[in-house]
Request: fold
Amino acid sequence: MKRYIVIFMLCAYCAALWAQDGLAINALFDGRFKQSPTATEILVDGGKARAIGLDIYRSLTVTDMAQGKAIEQNVTHDGARAKSKEVEYRGGRLYYGFYELGLVRPVKTEKQARYRYVFYLNQSLANKTPQNRVTLIYMESKHGPEKIKQLIKK
Reply:
């Protein structure tokens, strides 16, 4: 029985990694920031993610602006192929971005559909109280973009 649980957990972890396959931001979630004092990386999947209406939630927040610039480049690259997007630039730099990247993989029925979303915020470009902080969030969910935006606002 324990073996089945371990196999199931391994499959769930691999599914989380494969979901981002083909995205430039995938390289940012390779574990390089786990020991960094200037970064925080979070992964939520399984039951905890489903409790908030998601299948996968990954976030990366950095306070080193050189790392932030690399994140911006990867987000911009993926955003160019987005199904839909809302972006705001300040001083020629990406300040805010919300991208709908489409389906995780092709499905037979709409009920099986899982969509990919990326949220980006560079708080160093904020008008009021700027902070050296860049946040990247990757999410998968069966919900549409409006529901995801509500989750982000919470």
Notes: The radius of gyration is 16 Å. DSSP finds four helices and six strands in the chain. The chain has one domain: 2-153.
